[in-house]
Amino acid sequence: MDLAGLRTPIVAAPMAGGPSMPELVAAVGRAGGLGFLAAGYKTPAALAAQVGTLREISGAPFGVNLFVPGPVPDVASIAAYRAELAVEAARYDVDLPEPDPADDDYWDEKLAFLLADPVPVVSFTFGPPPADVVAGLHRVGTYVVGTVTSVAEARAVAALGVDALCVQGPEAGGHSGMHDPYAAPPAVPLLELLASVRSATSLPLVAAGGIATGADAAAALRAGAQAVQLGTAYLRTPESGAKPAHKRALADQRFAETVVTRAFSGRPARGLRNRFIEEHDATAPAGYPLVNQLTQPLRAAAASQDDPDGLALWAGTGYRHAQDVPAEALTAELWSAAQAAQSSQ
Ligand SMILES: Cc1cc2nc3c(=O)[nH]c(=O)nc-3n(C[C@H](O)[C@H](O)[C@H](O)COP(=O)(O)O)c2cc1C
Q1: Are 115 and 134 in contact (CB under 8 A)?
Q2: How far separated are the first and last CA of the chain, in Å rounded?
Q3: Distance 76 CA to ligand 1 centre (A)
C-alpha cells in the first residue's frame, strides 16, 4: 500500500464513537479512495469484528487508526468537574463512573492484533507512535501514518520512520491530534500549516481539517498534500454510523457554529455548540481520558433519548456542506470537483 497508488486521493477519516462503519470504509474504497476504521474506544474484539466484516465486503486497501496513550491525569484533578456533572447525571438519570486511570484504550492488545493479522495502513493520533511500534508494523508490511498538528510534531514523527504524515489543521471536526494534551489547541490554519510542514519534511502528507468541497481539496493538494482526509463530510452519509441526532444537528439551522472544547473528553475537540458545551466548557479540565469516561454514560443516555444537547456533535468548520449522499458517490463527486478546480487554476 502506498498513498501515491490511490486512484482517488481522498481518505475517509477514522471517526471513533460509531461513524466509521465497515460499510463506509468499503464505499470509499469502491470509489478508489482510502477508508479508515477507528479503533479508538473499542475493545480489541470489537475492532477484530469490524476488520472481519470489512474484509468480507471489500477487497480494497483500508486503514485502522489508534489513539496513542498519553500522560494519565491525576484523579484529583477532575474531582471538581465530576461534582459539577452531578446535575447532568440527575438530568439523564445515570450514575457517573469512578474514573479509571489505568485506561489505555487496550493499546497493547490492539497492537498485538494488528501485528498478528496485519492491515494495509495504520495511523496514529494523540501522540507520536513509538519507533519500535513503527518498525514492528513495517515488518508485517503495514504502511504507517502519524497525525501531526504543528511543525514541531511533524519533525518529531518524521524522525520515527513513518511512511506519511496526516497534517491536521484546527478546522478539523472531532479531537485535535495534538501530542501535548495540556497545551493550547493549535491555531495555524491548515493551508499555512501544510506549507510549513511541506518545507520541513519530504514525507507524503495527507491534509485534514475543514475540507468540504472540491475547491478545498484542490487547495490542499496545491499546498503540497498527496491526499486529503475528510471526516465531517461523511458523517451524514447513509453508511455512517453517527447517531441520528448528530446527523440531524449537522443540517439544523439551530446549531449555528462550531467550537473547540474539552467539555466532553478533557482533550480539545471541535463540535457544534450545544447546551452541554455552553454549560461546561468554561470549567472542563484537561483530563483525558478520565473526563471522557465521566461523560460516557451521559452521552449514551442523550443518544438514546435522541437529545442533541447532551451529545458530542463533532463537526469541522465545513459542516454545512455535509450531505446525506451515499459515500461512494460523494467521494467520486468530490474528486471530480477537485480535478475541475485544479484544472481551472
Ligand atoms: C466524529 C469524528 C470522530 C473522529 N475520530 C477520530 C479518530 O478516532 N481518530 C483520528 O485520528 N481522528 C478522528 N477524527 C478527526 C479526523 O481524523 C479528521 O482530522 C477530521 O475529521 C478532519 O476534519 P473535518 O471533519 O473537517 O473533515 C474524528 C473526526 C470526527 C468528525
Answers
A1: no
A2: 30
A3: 30
- Ligand 1 centroid vs 90 CA: distance in angstroms? 30
For residue 272, give the C-alpha cell: 457544534
Domain assignments of the chain as residue spans, ordered by start: 3-69+104-241+321-343, 74-103+256-312
Q: What is the pLDDT of residues 73-82, one digit of tens each?
A: 989 989 999 9
Average pLDDT of the chain to the nearest whole number = 97
Q: Is 39 in the pocket of ligand 1 (CB under 6 A)?
A: no
Report domain 3-69+104-241+321-343's class.
Answer: alpha beta
- Cα(12)–Cα(230) distance, integer angstroms: 5
Q: What is the pLDDT of residues 98-127, one digit of tens each?
A: 999 999 999 999 999 999 999 999 999 999
Ligand 1 binding pocket includes 298 (Cβ within 6 Å): no
d(CA 66, CA 34): 16
Instruction: State how far the Cα of 264 lies from the Cα of 296, in Å rounded to an integer.
Output: 8
Reported pTM: 0.98
Count the helices and strands in the chain (H runs, E runs): 14, 11
What's the pLDDT score for residue 53?
98
